[in-house]
Design a protein that fits this description.
Blueprint (H helix, E strand, L loop, with lengths): L9 H26 L5 H8 L3 H4 L1 H24 L1 H21 L3 H11 L5 H12 L2 H32 L3 H21 L14 H24 L4 H23 L7 H4 L2 H29 L2 H4 L7 H29 L2 H20 L4 H27 L7 H28 L16 H20 L23 H4 L5
Length: 496
């Protein structure tokens, strides 16, 4: 009997080495664009002559768009090919950045942020491409690198924003997004091979897509605007009710149609359901902590007797260690996943996030405290982000990996929206009475301490969630047989 051919040739390995950098850059492009506007929202309100409550729509619109489009692009990637959908996702990011550069209208800027939200599809599509294209032994590291890039890009975006504003105006931030997006499109177009469609028998689910968009939209608008409208207002409670009813209708539709957008049986598997819960909590911690730390650093010390009177750039630099920590976490997470499975890095991610926030609640009087906590938190976020796709890919078939990772990404986004809303409520609920009038009310130091402790508690709960997932040993390869084609056993050893 002749020897079986090697699954990956030297030419294929060389091609694979070209694929991963393109996918990482695509992920960095979206994460940089998504968070770059966070520290400049107050200055944008003055520049565009809109109220402080209305300017938050620049984040709400982007989060909403990403939450709706991410699972849709992930599913269409499963059905029609990952590369075309990835290019469409990046094209939305580029179009949004180009529109933002060309307009001075607040309304059109919101439209631009909606278009940029299409970039949310990059993560699930990139993870699916890695699973398809890289050699089996490289998949774990590749997935970890792409997922951890979300934390890296978020931190770099905050620093880049401050640096650009030191020399140019706010338009330079959108020019940065445009340049990143165009480079990512070029690399993906020329370096990522066309992939075979993995679910040729699948079909579209337009009603499922419409109802998914409906309940996500109602939920995110209610969460993001609750502080402004009031949590017991008719608008807020009405939207929560609409979200609940439409979500119920969506669930019924998905159990009845022959080709559902989201397979709810797949989503209810412990490895998927509990990983999504962890994603929601980690998203809460990441977005909430970035906002709180940035605001704390920029607080005028002479007035509040805390904070560091930092510029936007200085505040971004204080958060730079989080990006470095996430970068370090990618290879560390891949190594831990390969040796111990994804539970340990996900647990460590939650624990390290909790340690960082508890540290800030106790020690916050020196800049070194911010740098230290930021580095620890970034390492934790990177480990958690690396582990979540490994859990999911180990529990779902290849043809459902796009939608499964897409829904995990959506729940991180929802968690982020909830986190920023809760942090805002905590900070605005306890403000200082100052002898002079200033444009913005300053939270008390106790308010910041409560915010830090709240984030710490959420992170420690996220670290406990993986213990609800039962891990099992991978099936042994039969003597003389070949390894299975699906690489999920290498990614995660989980109960499906």
């Amino acid at each position: 009997m002749s020897e079986a051919p090697q699954p990956t040739t030297a030419a294929e390995k060389q091609s694979n080495a070209r694929v991963l950098p393109a996918l990482i850059l695509a992920m960095l492009s979206f994460s940089v664009v998504q968070t770059a506007v966070v520290p400049i929202l107050p200055s944008l309100a003055k520049e565009l002559d809109v109220s402080g409550s209305n300017i938050t729509w620049l984040m709400t619109a982007n989060l909403l768009s990403a939450a709706v489009l991410t699972p849709l692009l992930g599913r269409f990637g499963d059905l029609r090919g990952r590369k075309p959908m990835l290019l469409i996702s990046l094209a939305g990011l580029v179009a949004g950045s180009a529109l933002a550069v060309s307009t001075h209208s607040f309304s059109w800027l919101i439209v631009a942020r909606v278009l940029q939200g299409a970039g949310g599809g990059v993560m699930p599509l990139a993870i699916s491409i890695v699973r398809d294209e890289l050699p089996k032994q490289k998949v774990t590291g590749g997935v970890a690198a792409i997922s951890a890039s979300m934390g890296v890009g978020s931190g770099l975006g905050l620093v880049a924003t401050g640096l650009l504003l030191e020399h140019w105006n706010y338009k330079s931030i959108f020019w940065m997004g445009l340049a990143f997006g165009l480079l990512a499109v070029a690399l993906v177009a020329f370096r990522v091979p066309s992939d075979p469609v993995t679910d040729k028998d699948g079909g579209a689910d337009p009603l499922g897509a419409l109802t998914l968009a409906g309940w996500l939209s109602a939920l995110l608008v209610a969460v993001s605007q609750g502080n402004h409208w009031g949590w017991t207002s008719t608008k807020t409670l009405g939207l929560f009710a609409v979200a609940a009813v439409v979500a119920l209708i969506w669930g019924i539709i998905e159990t009845k149609v022959s080709h559902p957008l989201v397979d709810l049986k797949m989503m209810s598997r412990p490895a998927v359901a509990f990983t999504n819960l962890a994603g929601l909590l980690i998203g809460f911690g990441m977005y909430g902590s970035f906002m709180v730390i940035s605001n704390f650093a920029q607080t005028p010390e002479k007035l509040a007797h805390y904070g560091f009177t930092a510029t936007v750039l200085h505040a971004g630099v204080m958060l730079l260690p989080s990006a470095i920590g996430s970068m370090v976490a990618a290879p560390v997470g891949a190594l831990l996943i390969a040796r111990r499975g994804p539970r340990l890095p996900l647990v460590l991610g939650g624990v390290l996030g909790a340690v960082a926030m508890a540290y800030l609640a106790l020690r916050h009087s020196h800049e070194g405290d911010i740098y230290t906590a930021s580095a620890i938190f970034g390492l934790g976020i990177g480990l958690a982000f690396a582990a979540m796709p490994a859990f999911i890919n180990g529990a779902v078939p290849v043809e459902q990996s796009g939608i499964a990772n897409g829904m995990n990404s959506v729940l991180r986004t929802v968690g982020g929206a909830i986190g920023t809303a809760v942090m805002t409520a905590i900070l605005t609920g306890d403000t200082m009475k100052l002898p002079i009038k200033i444009p913005v009310l300053l939270p008390t130091l106790d308010a910041y301490k409560h915010a830090f402790w709240t984030t710490a508690i959420v992170c420690i709960v996220a670290g406990a969630v993986p213990f609800l997932i039962r891990t099992v040993k991978p099936a042994a390869t039969p003597l003389g047989g070949s390894a299975p084609q699906d690489s999920s056993a290498e990614l995660a050893k989980t109960d499906a």
